[in-house]
Specification:
The chain is mainly beta. The protein has 1 helix and 17 strands.
């Protein structure tokens, strides 16, 4: 009898494994990528010190399937530099999708904080004066972030989609729940037009911080143009900001695209750091099969509102997708 039980359990376990394998699809994604990066860490003309070449080193592991009830379930893990970097799980159905970001990912506002067209990177990107990619880079009115975040995306309602994100508060003193919302509309009556709006609510150091942004993008023939405005209202006096961005790209053919973009940030500051931060960038990309060569040359004046704090930099990337 014991032998029969063992045989029965082994057969059951084998059938469960076979069912899981047939019900889910597994894939690994990655690329061979080489980047040349020179952000010129210093005022214009002061080149970066050190080796400017880096190689991409991440792999994405994907699995997806469907329950008997018709719910879609997917999970993603990114192994980046031998570290489990970004990972998330998604449940989807007729209601839309709910994604839980255990690490990484963009909020509803963060996904659209600058959607003006470019061929490689935004006008304010690439510049990095101290190598941290945060304190030494231009200021942007961006969305919040955090681990263990929920993001809901609605189904398409006649060209309109709604997205909401929430990062629950932690146990640390002063922490608060972050929430934001975004809506995008691509009216069926006007082909190529997209309108979008997003808002966020957060608390920083005990002060309310409200952000909003709106944008318009239009695609006509080989041209894509876009304009976006953003606003940050801070409860602290002289801490609010406003920005305006625009961009245009032109697809010369199916493989080659060029672009120009600009971004201006105004500071409501009572001190001397209240000059308008102005960023501009020229970018291009060329694709042939699985190979993409892209790059940008960007420039920022009065970074973080500091007069004469001017920087420029350039970056080029060669990628082979597989």
């Amino acid at each position: 009898m014991n032998n029969l039980k063992k045989v029965g359990l082994s057969a059951l376990a084998g059938s469960l494994v076979a069912f899981s394998a047939s019900a889910a699809e597994f894939s690994v994604t990655g690329s061979a990528s080489l980047t040349f990066d020179n952000p010129e860490r210093g005022n214009k003309g002061a080149d970066i010190n050190g080796n400017p070449y880096t190689m991409g080193n991440s792999l994405g592991f994907n699995a997806s399937g469907e329950t008997d009830g018709g719910l879609g379930v997917a999970v993603y893990y990114e192994l980046d530099d031998d570290v489990m970097d970004d990972y998330d799980m998604t449940v989807s159905g007729d209601f839309g999708s709910i994604k839980f970001h255990g690490s990484g990912g963009s909020t509803a506002f963060g996904a659209v904080d600058d959607v003006t067209p470019n061929a490689y990177e935004e006008a304010w990107d690439i510049i990095d004066t101290d190598g941290t990619a945060t304190s030494g880079s231009p200021t942007v009115i961006g969305g919040g972030s955090g681990a263990n975040m929920f993001v809901y995306t609605s189904p398409d309602f006649g060209g309109a989609t709604f997205k909401a994100a929430m990062v629950p508060s932690g146990n640390a003193a002063g922490s608060s729940t972050y929430t934001d919302f975004a809506i995008a509309i691509s009216p069926e009556a006007v082909e190529g037009l997209t309108l979008g709006y997003a808002i966020s609510d957060n608390e920083s150091a005990g002060k309310d911080v409200d952000k909003s942004t709106g944008y318009v993008k239009y695609v006509y023939s080989g041209f894509t143009v876009g304009v976006q405005m953003a606003d940050l209202d801070h409860e602290t006096t002289s801490s609010s900001q406003e920005s305006t961005a625009y961009g245009i790209t032109y697809a010369v053919n199916d493989d080659f695209t060029i672009g120009y973009s600009a971004h201006t940030l105004e500071f409501d500051s009572g001190n001397s750091n209240n000059s308008d931060q102005e960023s501009t960038g020229v970018s291009a990309s060329y694709t042939m099969g699985g190979m993409t060569l892209a790059g940008a040359i960007n420039e920022v004046d009065n970074m973080d509102g500091k007069a004469t704090s001017d920087f420029e930099g350039y970056e080029f990337n060669l990628k082979f997708a597989f």
